[in-house]
Every structure is written in structure tokens, then in C-alpha cells.
């Protein structure tokens, strides 16, 4: 590719992972061009972060559409119209219609706060603590119709200490997410990580999750 990778992002919340991506780009570590940041919440902090960085934004309300599928199609059409090569779900909190996801096979990734396949869905820190785990982590994975079920690209791990709360784990893990997600996007931008019927890394099928060290 003779141009930067064109990246769009969707986010529902404050946008800390989006901010990490923008910071990596601004520091020269991430050769990408952001085409759009979209949200299902007009007050999402991610939109303000994008606007401050000069990135186009769009916010659509699910209430304005008759079905979930119609909303998903409308939002993802905006992403397609932006010319994005890659879609990053960076704290996007909606389950996306399977048919809409299928059109982005191999071109959409998500960051999730657990060591997948453990703890798909919500409340991952609570579930980790309730299970008595001694280790927690974050995963970046390709998006498929199965909730948090696509092939895992990379993972970061943190220890769980006695007395840790959900907030403790969330704060510690965000630090790792903010390194892992830009590194994964960077591997796609450089061509090291590709989708060819499945994830390929450095020309070989990806058989187990990468670490941050593998990606750098």
C-alpha cells in the first residue's frame, strides 16, 4: 500500500483507546489516516477527542431506526463512505448485526478487557475477581458475528493482587490496552498482520495470540 492505512473507529464512551491511537499516530509510531469516528451516543467523549484532533465524526441514535439491523447498516454505511480500510471498535458497546459484520470480515478489530475466550461480554473485571483468577488481561481480536468470538490477534496480561477491586483492575488494564491496540493496528498498517481467510502474521497463519513484544 503506497499510502497510510485508512482507519475508522466506533466508540460509545470516553474514548481513551481512541486517544491512545491518536497519540501513537502523532508520535510517529502509527502510520495511519483517521477517516471517521462514529458513535451511537451523541455525548460520547470519543467524539470530542476526534473533533479536537480534526477527525470527522458522526453520531446516530438507535432510537431513530426501526430495527437494530437498520441502525447498524446506516452507521456502517457511513464508515464505508469514509473510505476506511480498517474499522476499530474502541469501546463500542453494541452488538452488531451479523449481516453487517460479515461485510467487514477481516477488516474490523475490537479491543476487549479479558483474556478471551474467557469472559465475553460485560463486567469482565467483576467476573475475573469472582472466579478467583490470579491473572487478567486484554485481547484484540478480529470481529465476527459471534460476540467477542473472532480470532484473537494479541493479548496483554496483568496479575490480580489480593484486595484488588474492579476499579483497580480496570485502571491497570487500560494502561495495557493503550499499548496493545495501537501496536495491533500498527501491525496491520505495516502489512505484518493480514487477513487471508484467517489471520496471518509475518506470512504464517496466526495460531496463538501475540504479545506486545511480538508486535513491536
Automatic annotation (TrEMBL):
One record GO biological process: 'de novo' IMP biosynthetic process
Class of enzymatic activity (EC top level): transferase
Binding site for N(1)-(5-phospho-beta-D-ribosyl)glycinamide: 15-17
A GO term from the CC aspect: cytosol
Catalytic activity, reaction form: N(1)-(5-phospho-beta-D-ribosyl)glycinamide + (6R)-10-formyltetrahydrofolate = N(2)-formyl-N(1)-(5-phospho-beta-D-ribosyl)glycinamide + (6S)-5,6,7,8-tetrahydrofolate + H(+)
Function: Catalyzes the transfer of a formyl group from 10-formyltetrahydrofolate to 5-phospho-ribosyl-glycinamide (GAR), producing 5-phospho-ribosyl-N-formylglycinamide (FGAR) and tetrahydrofolate.
The protein's name: Phosphoribosylglycinamide formyltransferase
Amino acid at each position: 500500500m503506497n499510502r497510510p492505512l485508512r482507519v475508522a473507529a466506533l466508540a460509545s464512551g470516553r474514548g481513551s483507546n481512541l486517544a491512545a491511537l491518536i497519540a501513537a499516530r502523532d508520535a510517529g509510531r502509527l502510520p495511519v489516516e483517521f477517516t471517521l469516528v462514529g458513535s451511537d451516543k451523541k455525548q460520547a467523549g470519543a467524539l470530542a477527542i476526534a473533533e479536537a484532533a480534526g477527525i470527522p465524526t458522526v453520531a446516530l441514535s438507535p432510537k431513530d431506526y426501526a430495527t437494530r439491523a437498520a441502525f447498524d447498516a446506516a452507521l456502517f454505511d457511513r464508515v464505508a463512505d469514509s473510505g476506511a480500510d480498517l474499522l476499530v471498535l474502541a469501546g463500542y458497546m453494541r452488538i452488531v448485526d451479523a449481516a453487517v459484520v460479515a461485510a467487514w470480515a477481516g477488516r474490523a478489530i475490537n479491543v476487549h478487557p479479558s483474556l478471551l475466550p474467557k469472559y465475553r461480554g460485560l463486567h469482565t473485571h467483576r467476573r475475573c475477581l469472582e472466579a478467583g483468577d490470579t491473572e487478567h488481561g486484554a485481547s484484540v481480536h478480529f470481529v465476527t458475528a459471534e460476540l467477542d468470538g473472532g480470532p484473537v490477534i494479541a493479548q496483554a496480561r496483568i496479575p490480580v493482587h489480593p484486595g484488588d477491586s474492579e476499579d483497580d483492575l480496570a485502571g491497570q488494564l487500560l494502561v495495557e490496552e493503550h499499548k496493545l491496540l495501537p501496536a495491533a493496528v500498527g501491525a496491520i498498517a505495516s502489512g505484518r498482520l493480514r487477513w487471508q481467510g484467517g489471520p496471518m502474521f509475518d506470512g504464517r497463519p496466526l495460531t496463538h495470540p501475540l504479545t506486545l513484544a511480538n508486535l513491536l
